[in-house]
Amino acid sequence: MQDSEARSQALLLFPNDALGSADLFPDIWDGMSCGIFVLEVLEDATEFRFLALNQVITEALFPTTLLGKTFSEAQQIAGMTLPKSGYQTAAQSGESTIFEQQILIEERETWWSLTVTPRRNAQHQIDRLVVTAIDITEQKAMLQEREQTEAMLRTQAKLAAFRADLDAALMHPGNLRSILSRCTQAIVTHLNAAFARIWLLNPSENVLELQASSGLYTHTNGDHKRVPVGQFKIGLIAAERQPHLTNSVLTDPRVGDKVWAKREGMVAFAGYPLMVDDELHGVLAMFARQPLGEEILEALQIAAEKIALKIKRKQAEIRLREYAERQALLNRLTTQIRNSLDLDQVLAIAVQELYKIHQLNFCAFAWFYPNTEPPTWELIQEAKSEDIMSALGTYPATIIGPIEDGLMRQEVRQIDDT
Predict the structure, then answer these.
(1) Burial of 163 by CB count in 10 Å (0-12 exposed, 13-18 middle, 19+ buried)?
(2) Which of 7, 111, 144, 200 could form a disulfide with 132 if both were Cys (CB 3.0 to 4.6 A apart)?
(3) What is the pTM (predicted TM-score) of this model?
């Protein structure tokens, strides 16, 4: 007999007197293919008592010792948890209710499809519930297994797409900053990161400089533009040369701004040092609004290794190119000096070459005259972009401010005005 037919037949057995029907038709009552039990509604549907149990339900779920016992007593006697909400809905609405319920029996998880039908007494009050129960534990297990398999396949597809995008980013012919931006975008797109960032190590200052940011924040000139090694969570990752991983951002001691994290719904953080052998090149980090599984963390670890290797190779290429450019510049200047004794011409060529090689907006040469009154600078050669006014001319030495003293001591001065 099909389950729906069994339920229909069960209801026909219970017009208004549930117990009487069970007594009058014992063979049918115990021969049903589905479990049936009858509950007495107590205390305005805040409690229920077992009145009748057929053989199927006693063998599969409720022992006969529960007859005459309430749900609360059943928990103490049989060690089972019985949520009341579905039964209360039927008792209060007066309509049949169908729902699935998990019932724990001595810590064993079982699932049941329940149809609860209210029955009225002679005063038209709902005093009993007839419940048909079908064990769907096996179907639930199969469904869960299928869902897990589908989730695994989705994760594998996501990781395959991430690896493809990451490899494409690392093969991109652009400069290092654009390559790193493509890497962080791949992390955001495929690994569900809220945002991802990469810092590069400036070894001369022992500071991490933000180079790429994708997702929620795309700027690279904010408060985290420069992070000293050893400070904050990013700097500590660099100092310790170890990843920092957490799926509990709000309780992590290294997350400083927990008000921000709570407001933005951040749940997880993963940060990796970008290492090649024992050499640190930077830090890769991301925040996420959901926990990060082992597959995601493993993919990030591999990505960090690939990105670090690319940084090392790219920086080596840059150093080699800069060296070649310097050598070429020296060769051109040497040739000009050999071919001409005109110092102004040599200086003009030097300024132009430096302007081109370093892609500057402005480059100039000036003579300093300390014995004039007042001391002056005479700017005699310049190379500049078209939107910058010419600065050729003579100026008082004080125009360059406090750096004058350092220049007089033949010190190289660098000014970053961003």
Answers:
(1) middle
(2) 7
(3) 0.60
Q: Do 301 and 243 meet the contact criterion of CB atoms below 8 Å apart? A: yes
Strand partners, 195: 215, 287
Closest CA to 335 of 346, 344, 322: 346
Position 255, amino acid: V
Whole-number Å distance between alpha carbons of 315 and 169:
16
CA distance 22 to 409: 109
Q: What is the DSSP letter of 256?
A: -
Distance CA 267, CA 290 (A): 5
Q: What is the pLDDT of residue 394?
A: 93
Of 408, 407, 356, which Cα lies nearest the Cα of 385? 356
Strands 244-246 and 268-276: antiparallel
pLDDT in tens, 211-238: 999 999 998 888 889 999 999 999 999 9
Question: Is the CB of residue 179 less than 8 Å from the CB of residue 314?
Answer: yes
| Rounded Cα gap, residues 176 and 170, in angstroms | 9
